[in-house]
């Protein structure tokens, strides 16, 4: 499992778009049918799982002097790759569903970076819907996020400089990717493939636009999600529990083996008199 | 013209000194029966119990007809058939109409005697010789037996040569038995005689007495140990009865004779197979719930939720809460903050292990409660016997 930190880019590719082979390009431009190999395109790889770690959330700034009653904060809702790679490798478009009090509450974003900025005064739940490329997945995926404008109670007065950031880490999992899809993305830095890619990572070519979020204007506020901490804590907890189980198992077998002698403290001395 | 006349009302009934009602001379308050005059005067009649005699004089037994007869008590001499000497004793006698009572002394009938057989020399030579016993000793024994009515403790005390009670008893019983059989015309005649039917087991008696004295001189600690051992033995018996299908390869719970605990408790070896089969934890996270299989794409957190639900499906709501509480106590997030594949796997494993732990805890509690209940019940059943050894 990869340990992904946003500021340590993976080995070779620095925010790359994969260099597409001719076949892949052909596949991409003609999603409906590929002349070479229709079976290959549709074949599902059963034991391979591709996942894309993502982070989604909101960043909101208090407007300070410029704040009015109905416009106290400006905020941005977004979904990004957890390593700030380019999500458009799988995501075709993202639809943000806002509170009905917004005009045109259904906001569609067709290209990266998949985000939306607005201003307002109220906190509400935003629905984020991912639509994937047709070779990736025909189903859409829904996420939900609660917009937070106001800081915690003990954080002191609001500042226009320091935003309120709420981010959630998750992973988009494709349990049975088609072979075509797999081939297309297996070397992409945004993807997590269970086994190491056979070849070196694809290099970026200069004239491609960078659609990652590594240099995003808000990137300074992005959180670092490290699985190391959590893994450590979980391992420690498991050890504790296992030790406890072993101890109890010993106690249990003792009771069922030789019981009373070791455990009786004091009791009224009863005489069993015969004779 | 009286208004009342017009209205027809009665004249008022003012006692305007009209009639002198004949008054019965009112007695000074009559003293009720059953109470003495003085008491009544003292108490003033207040606070007295209901004045009903509780004992009817007429209900009492009439004294036996004393009138007809003349009864006197006299200090008279008497004889008792129980006495062989001619000692003259006196006692008070109730004499009725100058006729002293007749008959033997009332208590003479309690002077029972044992029929100690007497053997002739010939019989002795024929049937009764014994290497360890001389003729004189046997004679002395029998004489003492006759004299002391087979009270062997006394006999043993008075026996000229030192011999144990068992020894004496043994000799007496064997001699008597042999005599009986010899004198009887057929064995069947005396077969019913207890002396013939049962033989005296000196070894057993010795052992019994030794054990009894050991029991008597037990320390408190040994007593307790015995109690434990017996309780355990009982428990084993019960569990054996309960688990008839569990084959025991000779679990020798050496049930001590309650009379032989002197050297402390003999350890019990219990070969009962441990029935602590831990509750099989739910399947590992490799078994993917069907709901997930159907999805072409899903979020890792959603997958984890499904797996967690699958694991805890069989447990009750209380168990689920306890698992969550345990997770919190361990400092683990109920939902992982960084749900990567590895983290989710670990999380699921942890939950499984916690379930196992809670199940074992419950098992242990149940076992302990069961043992405690067994011990208490065995305690209440044991009778307390007075600690007096008797031979």
Automatic annotation (TrEMBL), chain A:
A cellular-component GO term for this protein: nucleus
Record's keyword annotation contains Cell membrane: no
CDD domains: YEATS_TFIID14_like
InterPro entries in UniProt: YEAST_sf, YEATS, YEATS_dom
One GO term of the biological process aspect: regulation of DNA-templated transcription
PANTHER family linked: PROTEIN AF-9 HOMOLOG
Full protein name: YEATS domain-containing protein
Subcellular location: Nucleus
Keywords: Nucleus, Transcription, Transcription regulation
Pfam families listed in its UniProt record: YEATS
Limits of the YEATS domain: 44-188
From TrEMBL, chain B:
Intracellular or extracellular location(s): Nucleus
Single GO MF descriptor: transcription corepressor activity
Composition bias type Basic and acidic residues, residue spans: 18-36
Keyword Membrane appears in the UniProt entry: no
Residue span of region Disordered: 1-36, 243-262
Domain Myb-like: 129-178
Stored SMART domains: SANT (SM00717)
Keyword terms: Chromatin regulator, Nucleus, Transcription, Transcription regulation
GO cellular component: NuA4 histone acetyltransferase complex; Swr1 complex
Name this polypeptide is given: Myb-like domain-containing protein
Organism: Aegilops tauschii subsp. strangulata
């Amino acid at each position: 499992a990869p340990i992904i930190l946003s500021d340590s880019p993976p080995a070779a590719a620095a925010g790359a778009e994969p260099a597409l082979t001719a076949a892949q390009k052909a596949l991409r431009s003609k999603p409906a049918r590929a002349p070479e190999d229709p079976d290959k395109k549709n074949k599902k790889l059963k034991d391979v799982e591709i996942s894309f770690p993502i982070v989604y959330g909101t960043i909101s700034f208090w407007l300070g002097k410029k704040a009015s009653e109905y416009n106290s904060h400006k905020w941005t809702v977004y979904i990004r790759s957890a390593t700030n790679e380019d999500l458009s490798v799988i995501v075709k478009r993202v639809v943000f569903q806002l509170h009905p009090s917004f005009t045109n509450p259904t906001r569609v974003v067709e290209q990266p970076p998949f985000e939306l900025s607005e201003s307002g005064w109220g906190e509400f739940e935003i629905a984020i819907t991912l639509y994937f490329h047709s070779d990736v997945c025909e189903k859409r995926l829904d996420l939900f996020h609660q917009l937070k404008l106001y800081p915690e109670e003990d954080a002191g007065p609001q500042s226009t400089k320091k935003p309120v950031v709420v981010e959630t880490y998750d992973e988009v999992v494709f349990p049975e990717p088609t072979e075509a899809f797999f081939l297309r993305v297996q070397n992409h830095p945004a993807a997590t493939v269970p086994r190491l890619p056979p070849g070196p990572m694809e290099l970026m070519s200069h004239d491609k636009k960078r659609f990652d979020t590594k240099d995003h204007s808000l990137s300074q506020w992005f959180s670092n999600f490290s699985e190391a901490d959590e893994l450590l804590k979980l391992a420690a907890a498991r050890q504790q529990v296992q030790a406890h189980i072993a101890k109890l198992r010993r106690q249990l077998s003792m009771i069922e083996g030789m019981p009373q002698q070791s455990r009786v403290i004091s009791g009224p001395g009863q005489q069993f008199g015969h004779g | 013209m009286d208004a009342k006349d017009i209205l027809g009302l009665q004249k008022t009934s003012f006692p305007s000194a009209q009639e002198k009602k004949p008054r019965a001379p009112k007695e000074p308050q009559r003293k009720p029966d059953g109470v003495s005059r003085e008491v009544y005067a003292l108490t003033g009649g207040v606070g007295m119990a209901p004045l009903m005699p509780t004992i009817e004089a007429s209900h009492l037994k009439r004294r036996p007809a004393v009138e007809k007869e003349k009864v006197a008590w006299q200090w008279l001499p008497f004889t008792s058939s129980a006495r062989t000497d001619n000692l003259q004793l006196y006692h008070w006698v109730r004499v009725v109409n100058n006729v002293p009572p007749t008959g033997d002394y009332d208590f003479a009938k309690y002077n029972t005697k044992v029929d100690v057989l007497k053997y002739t020399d010939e019989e002795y030579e024929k049937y009764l010789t014994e290497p360890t016993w001389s003729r004189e000793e046997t004679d002395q024994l029998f004489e003492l037996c006759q004299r002391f009515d087979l009270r062997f403790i006394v006999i043993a005390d008075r026996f000229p040569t030192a011999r144990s009670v068992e020894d004496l008893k043994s000799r007496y019983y064997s001699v008597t038995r042999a005599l009986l059989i010899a004198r009887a015309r057929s064995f069947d005649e005396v077969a019913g005689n207890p002396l013939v039917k049962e033989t005296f087991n000196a070894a057993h008696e010795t052992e019994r007495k030794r054990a009894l004295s050991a029991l008597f001189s037990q320390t408190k600690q040994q007593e307790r140990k015995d109690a434990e051992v017996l309780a355990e033995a009982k428990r084993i018996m019960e569990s054996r009865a309960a688990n008839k299908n569990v084959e025991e390869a000779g679990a020798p719970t050496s049930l001590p004779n309650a009379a032989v605990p002197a050297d402390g408790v003999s350890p019990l070896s219990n070969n009962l197979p441990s029935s602590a089969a831990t509750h099989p934890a739910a399947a590992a996270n490799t078994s993917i719930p069907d709901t997930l299989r159907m999805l072409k794409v899903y979020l890792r957190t959603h997958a984890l939720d499904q797996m967690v639900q699958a694991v805890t499906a069989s447990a009750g709501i209380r168990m689920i809460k306890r698992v969550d509480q345990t997770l919190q106590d361990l400092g683990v997030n109920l939902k992982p903050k960084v749900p990567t594949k590895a983290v989710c796997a670990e999380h699921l494993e942890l939950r499984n292990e916690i379930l196992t732990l809670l199940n074992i805890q419950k098992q242990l509690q149940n076992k302990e409660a069961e043992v405690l209940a067994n011990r208490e019940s065995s305690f209440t059943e044991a009778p307390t016997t007075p600690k007096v050894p008797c031979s």
